[in-house]
Specification:
alpha/beta, 10-stranded mixed β-sheet, 9 helices, about 35% helix, Gfo/Idh/MocA family protein
Length: about 325
């Protein structure tokens, strides 16, 4: 354990997700503290540190990684930088929580996992929604048999930010596009709930010439065993939605806000069967704090992560297939 019995975090970059969600989540967690932040712009790092109440700031990522008091780093950098800085952090002996998607390809993800294993450090992909207890509640409803046998899943994650032409999400070489940015959530949640890997995918996408030809909207079918399919859509040039529907033989579960968690009833979900319609209340928690505590517990106490890094490789393999399908207009079978 560290001297403070808390995991001491360093933040590589001043991305909005870090400032508005992950840093506050770590600061509100039971087992973590944010000790330093780095940016290639030293003034920005200093200003962010002052704004967020972080003790130290650095003007290079290398300087933060060289800080012996830092136990773990959170990486919210653009997607194409995830592999480089995860590997460099591992080589510096730092545990790594890396923003989703973990990498640009499954091969990159596998190399990142291997580097962290070799260095003896933990690696986790930052899918915060999976740590919210409502997913345990949803699984309990499914396992109880209340909605019968699952026949299909439908999920959406869309938002409209198309006017921000300089956004890093719209740089193809940087890992831009809606599948990488938000499509990974419906893909992840179907795998989480069905507890299996898919067999094939078919995806149709709108590649925008105004946005460096990244996919600004994508719709897909992901095939699982026993004829079960995930139908999904994701986009960055569409009205905001983030929904989940699980359809069973005897009923269905509706989650109006599947990935974003608010401090109100919008985070609750609904179960409908022949016996009626009921609302399931879920506790208000900070899912970013729960994510940070799971990671810290794994480092400090040697427990297993709730979601091993190998899961990220599998989700990246599915993303690879979705992107290939969208670009080739073909059904893509996933290897065993």
């Amino acid at each position: 354990m560290t001297a403070t019995n808390k995991l001491r975090w360093g933040i590589l970059g001043c991305a909005n997700i870090a400032i508005h969600s992950v840093i506050p989540g770590i600061q509100q967690s039971a087992l973590g503290e944010v000790a330093a932040i780095a940016s290639r712009n030293g003034e920005k790092a200093k200003e962010t540190a002052e704004k967020c109440g972080i003790p130290r700031s650095y003007d290079t990522y290398e300087a933060l990684l060289a800080d012996p008091s830092i136990d773990a780093v959170y990486i919210p950098l653009p997607n194409h930088l995830h592999k480089e800085w995860t590997v460099r952090a591992a080589e510096a002996g730092k545990h790594v929580l890396c923003e989703k998607p973990l990498a640009l390809t499954a091969q990159e993800a596998a190399e990142m996992v291997s580097a962290c294993d070799h260095a003896g450090v933990k690696l986790a992909e930052a899918f915060m929604y999976r740590h919210h207890p409502r997913y345990t509640q949803i699984k309990e409803v499914i396992n109880s048999g209340e909605i019968g046998i699952i026949r299909g899943i439908h999920s959406t994650f869309t938002f409209n930010n198309a006017g921000d032409r300089g956004n890093i999400r719209y740089k193809r070489e940087w890992g831009g596009g809606s599948l990488y940015d938000v499509g990974c959530y419906p893909l992840s949640v179907a795998r989480l709930l069905l507890e299996e890997e898919p067999q094939a995918v078919t995806v149709h996408a709108f590649f925008s010439p105004e946005h460096d030809q990244v996919d600004m909207m994508a719709s897909g079918l992901v095939e699982f065993s026993d004829g079960v399919g995930l139908t999904f859509d994701c986009g960055m040039w569409a009205a905001f939605r983030n929904t989940l529907e699980i359809v069973g033989t005897e009923g269905n579960i509706m989650v109006p806000s599947a990935f974003v968690s608010q401090a109100d009833a919008s985070s609750h979900f609904f179960v409908t069967t022949a016996k009626g319609h009921r609302e399931v209340e879920v506790p208000h928690v900070n899912q970013y704090s729960l994510q940070a505590d799971d990671f810290a517990r794994s480092v400090l106490e040697g427990t297993s992560l709730l979601f091993p890094a190998s899961d990220a490789i599998n989700n990246m393999a599915l993303l690879d297939a979705c992107l290939k399908s969208a670009r080739t207009r073909a059904r893509i079978a996933l290897s065993e």
